[in-house]
Amino acid sequence: MTEQRATSGRDRRFVLKAALAGGAAAVLAPGVFLIAETQAREPAAAASTAQRWGLLIDVSRCAEGCTRCVDSCRAEQGCEDRGPGAADPQWIRQIVASDPQGGATITLPVMCQHCAEAPCVDVCPTGASFHRADGIVLVDRHLCIGCRYCVMACPLGARFFVDRDLQDQRPATPRGKGTAEGCTLCVHRIDAGQRPACVEACPGAMVFGDLNDADSPIRQALARHPVTRLRPDLRLGNGVQYQSL
Fold it and tell me: What is the pLDDT of residues 85-128, one digit of tens each?
């Protein structure tokens, strides 16, 4: 594995990890592996705690019925759309929130919030759910045993379980039947110096960047506008924040 895990007091059971990993890459289809063999970043540019990647979404720019971020995510990650009613993983989903008093509604995208205190990481019995050094929450599918604890623990329903064979796999973002998954913040694109696919599709509503960099566009936007996190009562330290919500 090339991804770096953040070092903390909650690092998971590495002895069990070694026993389960078995030292071999699992093949999903000819030429497609659970962990990609090649990475765009050089070793010198490996994930580091010097960065904390985050996303700011201005929901005032999210038009009802717009699916650009959802469509770009599906195309990038190979999450097929089998039509209304199908229980397909939606790494990003558009929801409509309403004010119970005034009746006003607003549309906003919801995905994995890449929390600093992630419940999915806390409950995982094998360490499959983990923080990368730069704060991105990922799933090591070699270690995932399909227990779905992380699916139940996520307070925003942003973790999914793959219960069927998959088609049209993407070599950069391989997925696996019987494992949990969720938004990776397009980690393969970040490592190549690019922005997540959803941000590329809707740059007017989304700002991506390094929360540790005071000069980054996202930090400057956070300083200019009042923002909120989903479920702030849980104090999860969400890496995804919302403006105009």
Answer: 555 778 999 988 887 787 788 889 999 999 999 999 999 999 99
Q: In this structure, what are the phi and psi dihedrals at residue 189, rounded to the nearest 5 degrees?
A: -75, -40
The whole domain housing 28 covers 14-40+50-77+88-243
195, part of any domain: yes
Q: Read off the tokens for 123.
A: 């409950």
Q: What is the average per-residue pLDDT within 12-31?
A: 37
Which pair of tokens denotes residue 152?
Answer: 């139940």
Assign residue 150 the CATH number of its domain: 3.30.70.20
